[in-house]
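Input chain follows. Return structure tokens only.
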Amino acid sequence: HVCLAKKTSRLTAIDLLTQKKQWMEQCKDIERTVKETCQNRSQELVSKWMKHWDMRLYEALEASYRRGLPMLRFHFADFSCSLIVDSGKICFDPDLATLKTNFSTRTKAFIDFPKSKFKGITDSNIFGKIKRTNADLANKSLREAEELISMLDILPRKYSNWLVLFSRDRGFPVSNDANTFMDFCESYNFIDKMQENLPSIPDCEFLENIKVSLTELRRQIRGEIDSFRDRLNKSLIKNFSAQVDEIKNYLVSSASVLTQSPSTLLELSESQKSWKEIVKKKEVYQGKAVDCRRKLDLIKEHLLVDTSDLSDRIAKVDDFQGELWTTLNLAISQFSDLIVHKKEFASKSIAKESDAFREKLSSFRKLWKSATSHIFNDLASDELEVISSNINSLSKDFSLLESEARLILETCHEFQIQAPDLEVVNVLKDEVKLVQQRSHHLLEYSLSLDELRNKKWTSFQSNLSDLDDFVYK
């Protein structure tokens, strides 16, 4: 009896929550001692004594149970997880739903222990009473434990600012979209700042006793930083080379265009348009040349590469006193002088072109009048088909005359020359369109009429009979 009292006292001192295995071993030792003592003795003599020790175990279990319930939220020191980036989101591994389920299962296992896992010495049901009498305390402890695990939601939000690295639609400078010097500067400043802040991510976070590892998250972020920087470096080199080639092509092709000598009015008009476009773009390409020089400085700052070849390439396009720009400026100046001298030629050419155009227009009007004079007479279908075909052919000829008139007016505008009066073209355009539509409708009508004439009267009789039957009904 004294031995069992000491063992029961030691059982009370064992923490059921954190030392459940030791508690169960001590309890089984007590049960074994009781059963060995009662062996070969009358059940009537030992039953009360066995129940006595069941009550002592009840008291020990309740004491340990009540002591463990308030500490549930601080239990499970081995309960751990990791933060990772998956599908553009910061989440837990295992996921939060699994964590909550596991935590809840282990918590409820302790709360249900007196009823489901412990029967005492005599397989008594009295131990289930411990859970019932402490239900309020157990529910409170369960709510506190569940609130603690729910607080894990805070951590993904705490590190959500790093998600910008894993997305391409958050509004930050992205290497694939960078184009100007400022675009690349913003991209490099962004990635340098991310690199600088990376050590601020600790190895782990503790939410009371729950350990959340951040090692994998930090590894993923470091990898994305390195990947972003690599893409940015490649994009800068590619953009620099493409822009240098673009400037060079502009200089060479523009000088080539301006050195050609136009001989006709059409060539002169087109050359003047090209000259205006080249002059308009000149300042833009000079800005691009300056931008290229600044990009080369960025390459030297951020890339460990030999830039001598790049320096040689840009020297040909960013020196505004160099050969390529000097050649272009000279060509622009010479073409400007050419335009002044060619203006008189253009004026004479326009007068000559206008006279020739009026003659063509007069000939067209005669042909048009001849083709349309009999269209509304009572003609057979085959005659209408011939006239309609002639009208369509003349309509195409008129389209060419329209283009010619438009070119004359555009040339006058380009050279600021008094334009001839060609309003008659617009009037004739409306007439051609209207007659063409009417001739088409007239031809359709005539063909339908011929088809109707060729039908036999008997085919109409059956239809009339059907109509009579319908009216009668």
